[in-house]
Every structure is written in structure tokens, then in C-alpha cells.
User: Which sequence fits this backbone?
């Protein structure tokens, strides 16, 4: 997706900047939706979320940190309920 935005940037830098922000926002929303899913998170999902957060942090460290905090809170809530992330 960022390759497409890079091509757009060549043609129209102002539009590209807005589109790149939109890509990052949608990526963050997708991560948040995975964190907030109802069933306990599986261990592989937690790893996938953390990997996605590492990618997001390159572009938007503030948003990534906020989502890391949400993930940690969610994991604490799951553990308080006596449920460990499923393997």
C-alpha cells in the first residue's frame, strides 16, 4: 500500500501525505479491533499484534505506543479473569 502512496507522491505530494496518514490510521484501527475482540486472544494473535505494532511504530510511534498500552491492559484483564492467552 505504501508503494502506491509513494507513486502518488511523485504525482501529487499533498494528496499523498493525506493518503499515507489514512493508511496508517486504518492500520491502527485494524490492530485495535484485533486487541478488542471478545474471545481471549490466542498467543499467536498476540505475537502478530506485536509485530504489527513494530511496523506501525516506524511510521507513527505515538499511535503504536497507545495501542501497546491497550494490548497490555487487555492482556492484564484476561489474566485477572483467570484466562491465559490460548496457545
Assistant:
Amino acid at each position: 500500500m505504501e508503494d502506491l502512496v509513494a507513486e502518488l507522491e511523485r504525482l501529487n505530494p499533498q494528496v499523498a501525505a493525506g493518503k499515507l496518514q489514512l493508511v496508517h490510521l486504518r492500520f491502527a484501527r485494524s490492530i485495535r479491533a484485533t486487541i478488542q475482540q471478545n474471545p481471549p486472544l490466542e498467543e499467536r494473535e498476540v505475537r502478530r499484534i506485536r509485530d504489527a505494532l513494530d511496523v506501525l511504530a516506524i511510521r507513527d510511534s505515538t499511535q503504536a505506543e497507545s495501542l501497546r498500552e491497550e494490548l497490555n491492559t487487555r492482556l492484564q484483564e484476561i489474566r485477572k479473569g483467570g484466562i491465559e492467552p490460548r496457545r
Observations:
- The CA atoms of residues 53 and 68 lie 7 Å apart.
